[in-house]
């Protein structure tokens, strides 16, 4: 085998070979988008087809001298498109175009800021329907999972920013340290620092957004997150009183408890500097449970009982700390759900509860 993209500081996704066998086309995450790239099959420089592209390309296929992919963005659900080598694309399907007629889906806005550690951090803003630049809107953070993923310029079947924004919120999605699409080192910077710096950065992103956008009401802020985003929600619960309300789904509250009961273990040793019985201080210093005496922000906790990635015991433990500290809260356990709430009616109920909880405090 010969490495073709060793000098390319992004992670290639799906790929295909041109008809003549000379060019490989592939997709890769880049600053909150999934873009199309090419490289000679014999090796050489990687080229980006369109440096201005929005949205997410996936399932790239080369056939008959054409390049075809699936594409979606924050303002448009997925369609099949023909990708133009000189940039842009032409829609080949119309599966969803009729379904979104009359649905107000504003495209995400984006901004960058420099964190307290001197890192350039990228964020998206999702706007509510009927958005008015002259009005003031509460700010709700939507913290992505992973942590080795990113907030993309697209919808999400499990945790949708526009659905979260629908009652009248501006939703902030920040690609904190550890996110992908910003180079290998940016992702690796989270090793040995699994929660502290990302937690600081999402709060700094909120402050930067408030400073930059006059339509955000800085006095009304909440934070939500799922999976690793749920880990950060519990971390914020113990380390800041910045928010009026928190919503956490499938989040760990104790690093050692998560290590010993999750379906994946070894990478947690890498992230935390060794096993829990070693000499790494991370296990205690960056475990939300170490700061349970500071829990004070009203919180909605949700979990699927069949979740093996973040087992239900972590959410029950978080709920126990919240109750012990007499913090206003609500606990929802979905008995048939795994790591995500996927059944239609259960998802509807979940969103009704989330919106009702946020409305109570914002």
Describe the structure.
The structure is a single chain. The protein is an alpha/beta fold. 24% of the residues lie in helices and 29% in strands. The chain has nine helices and 16 strands. The strands form three sheets. An eight-stranded mixed β-sheet has the order 9-10-12-11-13-14-15-16, sandwiched between helices. Strand 3 (33-40) and strand 4 (47-48) form a beta hairpin. The longest helix has 18 residues, at 344-361. The chain is globular and about 65 Å long. The N and C termini lie far apart (56 Å).
Draw up the topology in text.
Layout: E1 12-17, E2 23-30, E3 33-40, E4 47-48, E5 56-63, E6 66-73, E7 76-83, E8 89-91, E9 109-114, E10 120-126, E11 137-143, H1 161-165, E12 170-175, H2 184-188, H3 196-212, E13 216-226, H4 228-239, E14 245-249, H5 255-261, H6 266-272, H7 282-285, E15 299-304, H8 312-324, E16 329-334, H9 344-361
Parallel strand pairs: 11-12, 11-13, 13-14, 14-15, 15-16
Antiparallel strand pairs: 1-2, 2-3, 3-4, 5-6, 6-7, 7-8, 9-10, 10-12
């Amino acid at each position: 085998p010969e490495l073709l993209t060793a000098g390319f500081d992004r992670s290639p996704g799906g790929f295909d070979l041109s008809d003549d066998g000379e060019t490989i086309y592939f997709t890769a995450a880049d600053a909150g988008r999934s873009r199309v790239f090419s490289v000679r099959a014999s090796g050489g420089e990687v080229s980006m087809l369109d440096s201005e592209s929005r949205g997410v390309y996936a399932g790239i296929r080369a056939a008959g001298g054409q390049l075809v992919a699936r594409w979606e963005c924050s303002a448009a659900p997925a369609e099949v498109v023909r990708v133009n080598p000189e940039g842009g694309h032409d829609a080949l399907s119309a599966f969803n175009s009729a379904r979104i007629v009359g649905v107000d889906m504003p495209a995400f806005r984006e901004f960058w800021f420099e964190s307290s550690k001197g890192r350039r951090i990228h964020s998206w803003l999702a706007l509510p329907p009927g958005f008015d630049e002259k009005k003031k809107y509460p700010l709700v953070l939507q913290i992505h999972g992973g942590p080795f993923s990113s907030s993309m310029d697209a919808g999400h079947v499990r945790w949708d920013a526009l659905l979260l924004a629908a009652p009248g919120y501006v939703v902030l999605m920040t690609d904190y340290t550890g996110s992908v699409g910003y180079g290998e080192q940016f992702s690796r910077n989270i090793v040995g620092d699994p929660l502290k710096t990302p937690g600081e950065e999402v709060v700094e992103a909120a402050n930067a957004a408030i400073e930059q956008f006059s339509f955000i009401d800085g006095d009304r802020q909440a934070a939500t997150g799922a999976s690793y985003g749920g880990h950060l929600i519990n971390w914020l619960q113990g380390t800041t009183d910045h928010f009026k309300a928190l919503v956490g789904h499938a989040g760990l509250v104790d690093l050692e408890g998560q290590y010993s009961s999750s379906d994946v273990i070894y990478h947690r040793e890498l992230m935390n500097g060794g096993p829990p019985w070693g000499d790494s201080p991370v296990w205690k210093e960056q475990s939300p449970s170490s700061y349970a005496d500071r829990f004070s922000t009203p919180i909605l906790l949700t979990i699927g009982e069949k979740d093996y990635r973040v087992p239900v015991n972590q959410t029950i433990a978080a709920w126990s700390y919240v109750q012990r500290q007499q913090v206003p809260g609500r606990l929802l356990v979905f008995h048939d759900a795994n790591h995500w709430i996927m059944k239609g009616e259960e998802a509807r109920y979940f969103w009704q509860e989330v919106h009702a909880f946020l409305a109570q405090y914002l």
